[in-house]
Amino acid sequence: MMLRITDDSEIEESTYRWSDSKNLSNSFTLVGKNTYAIGMESGKFEGRWHGVWSLPIKLADRVHFAVSDGSKVYFLYQYAVEFVTKLSHVERTYEIPELGIRVRELMFIPEHRQSICWRFVIKRLDGPMRSSASIMAKLRFLAECEFNLMWEVKQAGEQYKVRKEIVLYNEDNFSVIAKHYRHADWIGIFGANRQARKKYLGFDKFNYPILTEHLPSVDKPRFGSVLLEYEVMEEQREEEWEAEQIEGEYWPKSGERSGGGDFEIDLCLTGGSLSYQEAFGEFNYTMVNFESLAIEKSMLYKDYLEHTVEILHPENALTRAFRWSKVNLHMLEHYQPGFGTGTFAGLPHFAIYFGRDMCWATFGLLSIGDFDGARENLNLLARFQAPANGEDMLREPYYRGEIPHEIRTEGTVYYYSADATPLFVVAARNYLDWTRDINFVKFIYNNIVRAIEWSIDGDRDGDGFMEHGPEGFLIDTTWMDSYYRGKSALDVQAIFCRALLDGSHIASTVGDESRSREWLEKGTRLKNLIMERYWNDSLGFFHDTIEPTGEPNRSITINSVVPVLMGVTDQQTSHRVLSKIEGYEFMTDWGVRTRSKKDPDYDPRSYQKGGVWPFCTGWVALSEFRLGMFNEGLATTQRFVSALDMGSNYFKEVLYGDMPPMGQHPVQPTGCFIQAWSASMFLTSMVQGLFGIAPRPTPGKNAELSVVPFIGEVWKELRIQNVRVGENKFDFSLNSTQDSVRIKVHNHGPETANIETGFVLPTKASTAKLVDGSVSKLEELSQTKVSDYLNAIFTTRLNENESGDFAFAVS
Predict the structure, then answer these.
(1) Of 665, 690, 715, which residue is a domain's last?
(2) Does residue 1 belong to any structural domain of this protein?
(3) Structurally, how many domains does the chain consist of?
(4) Strands, E, within 629-752: which ranges?
(5) Which residue segment(s) compose the domain that 449 sits in?
(6) Which of 218, 307, 581, 614 is most buried, by the most CB atoms less than 10 A from its CB?
(7) 308: Cβ–Cβ under 8 A, 6 or more apart, which residues?
(8) Which tens digits make up the pLDDT trace of 714-733?
């Protein structure tokens, strides 16, 4: 029976498809909770950042597949005609006209295993190019694996010059075993569900052995690459093939048929830091349960989508980008034994738990209702918070209460990050607001106290601002760590101020009124000090940083929006900042530049001196929505989608600040092709910005929620499902015409809820009057007309499994 992944239409809607065989060079990734792979859409693995990882080690630099007729080797990646990535797996189609065959590939990583799996089916092409039975009889399927068992961190430097893994073929398991000769628990296993006809072990990749008579011995260990050769035989009769066709199967395609000549093979690469017995147990379990693991993986992603916030938006591009951003963020969730679960910063370079990145990722997780993922991020950071003063392995000092900058999966921890520690407090406050999980916040309250005390102690010269600077191997310890930024960067102070205010709220919630008053006072004082020392009134913008001399640095950077985002500026100041960012200096069609085009240091190809970061684009979009700049916020969000399209289904880390020559897409000058905080900020700007969804919890009372979306022009239908606050889950729908708006809210419970809802509509109309619906459920209707926006807000109280339906006439 052929593998049937899914015929679910909801998952099919999320599929990206490319059919250009000449442009399949984009990177893609497949992930599980333990294992991930990075390669090209064509199926090729190339360069040190491609391969298969089972952290803390890399398993293989490449796994390539080919077909041979005995006189020539046809690498499949050279014949790719289609690449399809779905939520849980990828599919490829290869066509080799010279042989008259089509090859279909399924590739997936079981969610909780340390394996990666492939299924291949070879079929004869229809028509005059159809292969003959004699050609099919000569064909051999080839599977090549270049093991490279190495410490993952070594990927940041030169690759090993000397091979350190020994390979041996195991006849009983149809597989090759690779073991590191110094580390007994670094092991890899590669094999199939059938016996290989020939096994080539230890050959030079530049001297492909299949076309020679040389056959290395398999009865003793060898160093180097391995190649397994399988006969392509006719495995099915016509009537069997017809009987196994299932409507909606993901393969074979329409028109693909052969009453014989079909060849199917399953392969698996397993490994990691495992004992010999564990590795073989993992390999055997995966091969035996191949079908069920593939279906399980598909269902896991389907369930994740269905149990987090889902939207149906009139602009299909926003719906699609929202769904794939959820998938992007979920893909970077990694479980490491001895550490726990947390969100990696990005791939391929940052398969690391970064403190600041995990905090920013937590905001997106909370927005979509992934409370478990958010809690795990906070828990992991709290676990590795510095318990006392000390020095890291680079002999750099760290101090009690400091949140790590990097937690690497082999156990190395580096602490130097100016903003990760106060961001931890801001993330904890957000967690409390969304989840109302007071017990967990009490559990990490000592961590919160130590984080704020560390931040306060960061003001070493007594000027009221946190200091930072070069430490370890970084030029600076702010998020812009690729160049030196003086002693007190603006963004760090704004986050510190927000942490003091949020820490005050948390302290009051847990009954620590003394600290609550102290932190509130310090936060208010810092808020005023930021305006005094950083604001440039003639420019209508903030200075980027303060130099060691005490003088402000006049660089014009995107960091001016951080005080706005953190809510430490008044409305007039916020408008002036955002108005400048909306101009040509910062704004592009695909996002926001990190530095003004007028700045003398602007470089559109620079990592942080002019490149477009989707992460920062989210800062701006969310700030615009919160300030009531709704049309501008929507336009910035749409630019976000353009950035996603440039990344072939991932939010990249950074794109060019200016458009390259005509006909070329902007691509990142450097950085990761999938980045957690980019996806997180898109989700946050959509949920909290465009849809106006915010928790309004009062601990100890009923859950409260605000849902006041901006509905743009006439949107026929907007649906938002699975909004979570505390234990409650809500659905929201809106239908509008030019003169009416209908809102329906449903509370799934389990608690009675007070809900603030309504809409923001760009219109010349000035009033919204309730004409139909749950009149008795509507309370405190208020209307405001600001500029060209009509803002109608009301409250309603709904019991468990109760709905409220409200229709308004707009005039």
Answers:
(1) 690
(2) no
(3) 3
(4) 674-675, 693-695, 704-707, 718-725, 728-736, 740-749
(5) 307-690
(6) 614
(7) 326, 368, 369, 370, 722
(8) 567 899 999 999 999 999 99
